[in-house]
Protein 1
Amino acid sequence: MAPKKDDKKKVVAENRRARFDFYIEDSVEAGIMLTGTEVKALREGKANIAESYASPEDGGIWLINANIPEYSAGNRQNHEPKRKRKLLLHKKEMVRLAQAVERKGHTLIPLRLYFNERGIAKLELGLGKGKKTHDKRDTVKDRDWSRQKQRLLRDRG
């Protein structure tokens, strides 16, 4: 049995609420421009992307409001925890995502922050459309039913 591709990825932060609040239509892997102390803080496993989003500005796409706390062994040249960080994408991807954001209701949501198999920090960015309240209720209902169904099957068999 061959190992899965995701086995070598070390996930630092995951936005679990994103799939509940948004329909994710497409996802893209993007690099991030980081300073040295930010990378060290990520390797310690400290990051929060739950309240962050990405926005096309100044000819690029920027990650806004992502919290990478200061590196514990850093000095006075430590980074600012919630600064804007530029995302590294191909030009065609940037244009496609920027045009999609201009359409009504679409937004760029960070899904996962991880190190790939080469040890480079990457961000999985999702193109999402917001769910209405009744859609969220349907999601909860479907999830509860699937759990109950699994319990019933496990108990019978």
Note: The first helix runs from residue 18 to 21.
Protein 2
Amino acid sequence: MILLDTHIWLWWVSNPELLSKKAEKAITKAVLQEALYISSISAWEVAMLVKKDRLQLTLEVQDWIRKTEALPFVNFIPIDNNIAVKSATLPGKIHDDPADRIIIATALNIGCSIVTKDRRILAYSKVKTIW
């Protein structure tokens, strides 16, 4: 069971050559086990990147997200009150990016590793990571 950081989700769908071998292997295993998770905050991040013209997709953003939602091995995790509070009270030193904090809190809540290349998340010792 793994949780994809937003950029990893984008790369997995659109530029898989950007993934490390370890990340690619973890994703393949999670697909086979139907245990691949994405936080709903990542859908928000993708939509915001498109809105700000920092990301261009081949489809409308809602259609692009729906294509991922339709995959039987992908599970989106909504932001519930537990995740929201956990993101605000993460132990130790972690930066203040709300989306990253929600992704970390989601991984801690469901007990899985985050696939990420984000140095700040990789350096946060309270969560397991794969890169």
Note: DSSP finds seven helices and five strands in the chain.
Protein 3
Amino acid sequence: MDIVHDLQSIAVQEQTLVFPQFDADRAWQVGAYLHEVAKARGLAIAIDVRTFGQQLFFSALDGATPDNADWARRKGNVVAHFRRSSYAIGLRFQQSGGTLADKHGMPVSEYATHGGAFPLTVVGAGVIGSVTVSGLPQRQDHEFVVEALCAHLGHEYGKLALAKA
């Protein structure tokens, strides 16, 4: 994996995967899509779709643990704070050798800079929430969310996917 290339690719993903509008029905559609695909693939994950301050969809598939739900919450907090994907923030810290605690005094009990939380961005409003998956290796968590957002927004996932590691 090339951190610089992944960061560039994530920036393109974040600029491209923008909703014209977003509401509770759309949150349910995105969450249900993630749930059905995860179930078909036999993935033991937690899925969280939220606007800042309100959880709109949550599901834990068979095999997911309470830790997965907590990781999803902590990753979503990173998106809420930085308005960027948790994977991008984690890669930036990996690149610089720092941590959230070192650089921002943010406790690991509340924030996780691991892949899987992606910003929900709406035209004219900016980042309003996050879509989060937890239970896979972090890069796969990130890409699973991107794949689902591509399906909902009509983008070809192959053009936005991170390069094979």
Note: The mean pLDDT is 96.
Protein 4
Amino acid sequence: MKELVFATQNKHKLEEIQQAINGHFDILSLFDLNYLEEIPETGETLVENALQKANFIYQKYGKDCFADDTGLEIESLNGQPGVYSARYAGNGRSFEDNMNKVLENLHGKTNRKACFKTVIALIYKGENYFFEGVVNGVITTEKKGKEGFGYDPIFLPDGYSKTFAELSLEEKNKMSHRALASQKLIHFLRQNK
């Protein structure tokens, strides 16, 4: 089976992608490579960050590799937190701190439109490829649900009555931004084995 490295240390992302890829490829994590350090992430866009992470691991190990970067973009906050979603409340802050800052910044605003965007950068047979997934929705006024991670408890996707954190992993994997980008990645890999 073809091996691919997923350049992430986020166990939640790894579980999501492994379930989405469903045995079509052997997905190695950074833990499998015994790489436990932070990967540089200095880009100003999701594309730049995803490619930087994939390229860093590809250069270090010489294995086909992919990495993702995800951002929550909120319309009335001029696209924030965007590329800074993971550290919106500051370096070393928690998902809880980030959510609280979003809710605080949206207090009193009626426009709560937002989207989750994932970009996957793949380095495959020496070439770079990009896959994007977007889910539109709104930011709720309070946290709901215990599943998922990140901003999931405050993101209500369009057409749903439950936040991402109220959906099961299986439900979320059918329609999430990462699932959509992953489906494009999987389709590409199947066509280009």
Note: Helices lie at 11-21, 46-61, 95-106, 169-175, 177-191.
